[in-house]
Design brief:
This protein has twelve helices and no strands. The chain is an all-alpha fold. The protein is elongated and about 100 Å long.
Length: 277
């Protein structure tokens, strides 16, 4: 490393130029990001009538290029600093650092000039972000929501199966009770507590497509109550009042030994596959 007054001057210039180059690089990058972000806030999803997408993309690209060039200058000066520390006399020439620092400074006013000259700063990335946000904000139609619910239920989503069962069960047409039972059954055999409670109600009241079966109702209420469904515990007690002690013990044993059997949901009591959308 150079010694004496000359060496101290070289090190001082190197340090200043290095910091200047880093400042230029970071400032240029921030200018480009701020320009795009500011434009996005002001004109969300809109296209300027005065500037074509290609022109605005080119402007934003130039601002970004300014930052990239200044980063390159910073890297070059850093390399020279390391070479100087290793004893390379050419790398220690103060003129290299002064020229490098000044050349980097040029890109800040260039970035400002390009950015201010364009009525709208926009690049392809900014446009993609706008389109994605617009797509997310677009409300789904009831038909689209329903189609997604059916798709999720068909794929085995227990929550969607239960929600679909609820919709069908609450429909005015009694024919939907059968389809509702199918989806409740599918969800119940995935240990969905509310669906198990619903199946208990089917067997307790003999709703289509099943026959009234207090013992089977007790089984489903027991399973749902084990998952902390308070209404299921109350319903289980009401059903138990109509069962003998032997039947209650049998229902508890069935519940303890119960294992999911989704194949039990594939057909109704008449042997027909259900449901069809």
């Amino acid at each position: 490393i150079p010694q004496g007054d000359e060496g101290m001057m070289i090190l001082a210039i190197k340090c200043v130029a290095r910091q200047l180059g880093l400042s230029v690089a970071l400032a240029s990058q921030l200018i480009g990001l701020a320009a795009c972000a500011g434009d996005q806030r002001q004109k969300e999803g809109a296209v300027s009538q005065d500037t074509s997408p290609n022109e605005s993309s080119e402007s934003c690209g130039r601002v970004e290029a300014a930052g990239r060039f200044s980063l390159l200058f910073f890297d070059v000066m850093s390399e020279m600093g390391e070479d100087c520390a290793d004893g390379d006399a050419l790398a220690c020439n103060p003129a290299n650092y002064v020229i490098g620092g000044l050349a980097g400074v040029v890109f800040i006013p260039m970035g400002f000039a390009i950015g201010l000259a364009s009525p709208e700063i926009e690049n392809h990335h900014c446009a993609d972000v706008r389109q994605q946000k617009a797509a997310r904000k677009k409300p789904e139609t009831p038909e689209e929501k329903q189609a997604k619910l059916w798709a999720r239920a068909a794929e085995g989503d227990a929550k969607a199966q239960y929600e679909l069962g609820e919709q069908l069960f609450e429909a005015e047409a009694s024919v939907y009770q059968r389809d509702a039972w199918y989806w409740y059954c599918r969800a119940a055999h995935q240990r969905h507590a509310e669906a198990q409670f619903r199946l208990g109600g089917y067997y307790r009241n003999g709703l289509d497509p099943v026959n009234q079966d207090p013992l089977q109702a007790y089984l489903w209420y027991e399973l749902a109550a084990d998952q902390h469904i308070s209404a299921a515990a109350e319903a289980r007690a009401a059903v138990a009042s109509r069962l003998t002690a032997t039947q209650i013990a049998q229902g508890e044993r069935r519940a303890a030994e119960w294992q999911p059997r989704p194949e039990d949901c594939g057909f109704d009591t008449a042997g027909n596959r259900v449901p069809s959308q």
